[in-house]
Amino acid sequence: MGHNSFGNAFTVTTFGESHGPALGVIIDGVESGFKIDMEGLQAQMNRRRPGGNPTGTKRNEIDELSILSGVYEGYTTGTPIAMILYSTNQKSADYEHLKDVFRPGHADWTFYKKYGIRDIRGGGRSSGRETSARVAAGALAMQLLAKRGISIQGGTVQVGPIIARARNWDEADNVMRCPDRVAAQQMVDLIEQVRVENDSIGGIIECRVNGVPAGLGEPVFGKLQALLSHAVMSIGAVKGIQFGSGFASAFMRGSECNDQRTSNGFLSNHAGGILGGISSGQEIVLQAAIKPTSSISRAQQTINKNNETTTLVVEGRHDPCICPRAVVVVESMVAITLLDLYYTAFGRT
Amino acid sequence: MGHNSFGNAFTVTTFGESHGPALGVIIDGVESGFKIDMEGLQAQMNRRRPGGNPTGTKRNEIDELSILSGVYEGYTTGTPIAMILYSTNQKSADYEHLKDVFRPGHADWTFYKKYGIRDIRGGGRSSGRETSARVAAGALAMQLLAKRGISIQGGTVQVGPIIARARNWDEADNVMRCPDRVAAQQMVDLIEQVRVENDSIGGIIECRVNGVPAGLGEPVFGKLQALLSHAVMSIGAVKGIQFGSGFASAFMRGSECNDQRTSNGFLSNHAGGILGGISSGQEIVLQAAIKPTSSISRAQQTINKNNETTTLVVEGRHDPCICPRAVVVVESMVAITLLDLYYTAFGRT
Amino acid sequence: MGHNSFGNAFTVTTFGESHGPALGVIIDGVESGFKIDMEGLQAQMNRRRPGGNPTGTKRNEIDELSILSGVYEGYTTGTPIAMILYSTNQKSADYEHLKDVFRPGHADWTFYKKYGIRDIRGGGRSSGRETSARVAAGALAMQLLAKRGISIQGGTVQVGPIIARARNWDEADNVMRCPDRVAAQQMVDLIEQVRVENDSIGGIIECRVNGVPAGLGEPVFGKLQALLSHAVMSIGAVKGIQFGSGFASAFMRGSECNDQRTSNGFLSNHAGGILGGISSGQEIVLQAAIKPTSSISRAQQTINKNNETTTLVVEGRHDPCICPRAVVVVESMVAITLLDLYYTAFGRT
Amino acid sequence: MGHNSFGNAFTVTTFGESHGPALGVIIDGVESGFKIDMEGLQAQMNRRRPGGNPTGTKRNEIDELSILSGVYEGYTTGTPIAMILYSTNQKSADYEHLKDVFRPGHADWTFYKKYGIRDIRGGGRSSGRETSARVAAGALAMQLLAKRGISIQGGTVQVGPIIARARNWDEADNVMRCPDRVAAQQMVDLIEQVRVENDSIGGIIECRVNGVPAGLGEPVFGKLQALLSHAVMSIGAVKGIQFGSGFASAFMRGSECNDQRTSNGFLSNHAGGILGGISSGQEIVLQAAIKPTSSISRAQQTINKNNETTTLVVEGRHDPCICPRAVVVVESMVAITLLDLYYTAFGRT
């Protein structure tokens, strides 16, 4: 399988460069006879799009989905579904000043070393824009999971030093997608300050899944947490992932960390809903660490193609904090992984 | 590919249950003509084995490798290498008291729900003993990487509240494999205390890789950190993983987190040696969160097959802290992943 | 990997339905820095297109390639290449009379049984038109193989009772792509007669590959002939495949069939250039049996959705003999397979 | 996936060299809770073993299966099943005379070219003995298919010029496994004559599958005939495969070759039970061309490692006609493929 594909029973293949003619995704293995909610798909696309969130970039892009195959009269046919996002803006001129220099924190240099070619169009394949194709696939996966009673909810739970204490998910329709309304406003204020300072800031995204039956996940290397980690860690900005008590487990005793249970159910969920790589029927809880956006309009030291030290100010309008938009990408990768494992464990019906 | 296999160009397939007749691994894709250092293999096996570390279980097991194929007169032939660990102790009697009850924090219940069968022999396939087969494959991978100038060093850097401050890797040959000699002794003392209290404790393992050339890792879903996360998170006790600054990135500004560079090299390594999913040539640094051992000799609430609440004391001699032995498993999975990606990017020569 | 994908190191994923908005292919794993000969690609597309051959259908379709990704300023970048063929004719009206009836020899019924849905648009995914996406990928593979000195030549060597005796490949630029000019003319005459009789006819395609170095193919299940068979047998009209002496081997003695050799080289090529699943350096020779086109304008018995017997005359202009166009598809699948194995054995440089 | 593995939902990985310590197979993806008929497994092993058939080699080997994992108290557990065949005869001395010379028709030379190493132990990995591991996996697959009402029957239908006319499968328990008792005796006589002449002879194996429901097979590249071809063509001695009318289709008109049908069913089966890559519910019929055994005790020209022409007489007792034993291998590969596709299409229950 190529490295631009993910999943076995529900296989997603993405292609396309930022500022190329189009991005797209081929989705193979979808059950037949499912009526796609096209408005729902587009709504999820809009949650991720640039300009769709006041904390993000001011660039305004429309991610309009075109479906080229696999759907007949609104229903899936069982054949591969191709979804395309044509670019409305292919101007590479904006990037001309980056032609010979490598942006700090970006993939410019490693791609150049690996491929011996420099595609300067907005980061090419390593751009965050690539994730729009994943969101298209993830949105479909979420609909197919919803049919099975499985729901996925992501949100920002930390930005810099601001940490959400509450988990009121019905409050999470704020611009931060944060389940703590008070923290959300503090995050927004901090991000605005960071923007003014021409800087960026990191955060943590939490994702919760409800309705997963016991039995998802395939030992040994197909463990649920292993595949979810593969999926979420394939998002460029993610630098860490944890399940349940995660890194806090390092401080714990077994007598505290073990989830005891009675005939009425589990008494805690330190495991994050997974035991031995298989879903236990509890809520699945994971967190992803998001690094600060690499593109900042501050002078930074870097090198050019001749390995000469130089100073770079990255121009353009970038998200000071990627979290609110990355929430949608995390949800998408979680959805893709869960549907893949659901099909594997329980078939397509 | 089956879910008991990992890797594409260097493919590892494990089999076997704890207390079954044998565990083993099939390694496919190895270059031909490589002289295996059999003593080196066995030495790495010994680092993981029960009874090999004073902080661990007092059970004393020998993991002696038998090679059944793929090697001729000491050299690899290019055909699959089968390595087997025959069990010297298959007594299932010790586990008879667990027949109808599900141990907290274990995979007993999820395996039972998924497969409808209860293999009580020491946890069967979900036992930590399964990882011995991975260590065999990992030990070979480490030799093949060493030939290419790549070295992997893991160690315990946290146990409960004891956190290693130093990174003196030449001190790491202590029982904790901790790069901070003072912290190591504190860890040992704490673990002994935890053992006396019939409890267990978690920790953090760090793994560093030196000598990786720029260019390893395949965007988009084959990103180096994504595959390493898949690999390391497939170890049962691992609840989280992070690269470079990891979760600390959430607190950072871009101006701090971006790794600037001059013609003399990078000025920092917050990225942990990976940019855009591709190795940058810097040291690769990752950490894995290890939960406290689930098996403790304390009364815990759980249920039996009839969903009746019951109280269980898990008998037997278990590791109060799995970190020193898990270090070897983390190293192994890192080695397997890196060699797979090395073969993919640069071929077998 | 999804079932609409083929290949490991050079991975081809196709999508699209006949008479849907578009067909396409995503090609993953291509080396970077290769200058694509776009005219050459289009020329190969034209060899397969309907209306491009006097023996075929009179329908005239243009298969114009659009490249959406993976190419920058004419050179491959190492990222996935998406090639799209937009449909100029999406009229489904022509197929309205087939809505409730299953065409003999077609996949109508099995797709309906499998997917519970009937996409009547020209056979949907099972149409021969699906192969146009493979030809696009195959044309690129042929260019990448040519760079390595490997050339692929296919031709029609049998149509009904007319069997080519000669192998003058420099004569094969006739409409049958037949390496025997005399037989070619007889084939054309026979096909015209078949067309007048509203019937169709089968044939045999031969494909030869020169310049393959010894060493291609991966035992055991990745044997060169196994993967080539997988590839070629995935073409809908192919009912059999053989290598070298193939089915004639059944009549042979070992003393005749073994290819003896001297220091000057092999004395024969009954093996068809493959020994033990690995290329020997000799010419690779394979043949594929092509069934007569299923769509014929003659009354045939079949059933409808209510399992009632009915009589059907398939309308429209179909190829009485698919061989000349299928030659291009066979070449394409051979090229895709060889490049995949070449990358696997020798890397991308 | 490594090239020594086959199948996606039911994955078979083989290892081991002829005259190495053991051969074996890891079977991943088997449903849990299935009671294995161990005597049935061994019986199928015995059908393939050397010395088990009077037309074959006089070498007498026992292929006794050891199961190392995946089975608990006689039932499958859902974890990988490891089956091992330990060698009782590892004498490499017999092969000493072959050390520097390449046997005609064998993989000696291509393995040497590919791997740069010469494992002279009975052909190593390319020996027919490798197929014993496949037969073990195939025997299990046949039991799992039988539970679902699917039966597989292979037989020899041609040896040299002797062609079976009848298809009386209840007569097929003769030494040739030939469904024509009269032809079977002629085949036996011919093989004895060939043996006396120190030669070998080819043949054709037919395999029929009954009870397959409509719906098996996954378009486009996962077509039933494509995967069956991959599987069967991975057997070293097979030089061709055809389905239904196969190569005879080349002579046919569409009006003859199309399988018409009425409400009472199909009127013919030229397609061999597959339409558009999906099983139609008809009997699946395929034939495999078997080349004459390469090892013959006649002087043949070949080269040695110094590329000097030399003459070789292969010593030892080899099968003059491999067909009766290869029947079992073909059945096995067909069974493995069908179960893989069955699990994919219909799940494990």
UniProtKB/TrEMBL annotation, chains A, B, C, D:
One of the Pfam families matching this protein, by short name: Chorismate_synt
Binding site for NADP(+): 48
UniProt keyword Lyase, yes or no: yes
InterPro entries the UniProt entry points to: Chorismate_synth, Chorismate_synth_AroC_sf, Chorismate_synthase_CS
Entry keyword set: Amino-acid biosynthesis, Aromatic amino acid biosynthesis, FAD, Flavoprotein, FMN, Lyase, NADP
UniProt GO MF annotations: chorismate synthase activity
E.C. number(s) listed in UniProt: 4.2.3.5
PANTHER family reported for this sequence: CHORISMATE SYNTHASE (PTHR21085:SF0)
Protein name from the UniProt record: Chorismate synthase
